[in-house]
Amino acid sequence: xxxxxxxxxxxxxxxxxxxxxxxxxxxxxxxxxxxxxxxxxxxxxxxxxxxxxxxxxxxxxxxxxxxxxxxxxxxxxxxxxxxxxxxxxxxxxxxxxxxxxxxxxxxxxxxxxxxxxxxxxxxxxxxxxxxxxxxxxxxxxxxxxxxxxxxxxxxxx
Length: 157
Known about the structure:
The chain is of the alpha+beta class. It has helices spanning 2-13, 42-45, 145-156; strands spanning 47-54, 63-68, 72-79, 86-87, 91-94, 100-103, 112-117, 123-127, 134-138. The chain has an 8-stranded antiparallel beta barrel. Strand 2 (63-68) and strand 3 (72-79) form a beta hairpin. The longest helix has 12 residues, at 2-13. The radius of gyration is 14 Å and the shape is globular.
């Protein structure tokens, strides 16, 4: 019953928006409705991530640092949301509901939604409601096959 309630909440939280053309090969269907993760622990998400997959060519393996300061994430590393990798800096404020962020720089200043994170915070799937970009982050590379499959299923769903 609880699982059905969470699924219903996630489906209702989704939104659809007209998407601009993606920077690179699409990781997900930009016409598909999405929702952000309802349960989120900013402290566990904080730290160093590696880009395991991205719609930006040349970003696989790039490092991103998300430092939680109690109100927002201080960002560092590489921005993998444009046509080519760029410098990632600034802040991403947690705006909710769920795991939704508003960056002040980087990520095209588009809202960032955490679409899924595994329970151990080893892999995360990020994207935008517009469908402009998406990426899979991993604590370690190479990404384990089962986690890669789960990430792909989230993006396909």
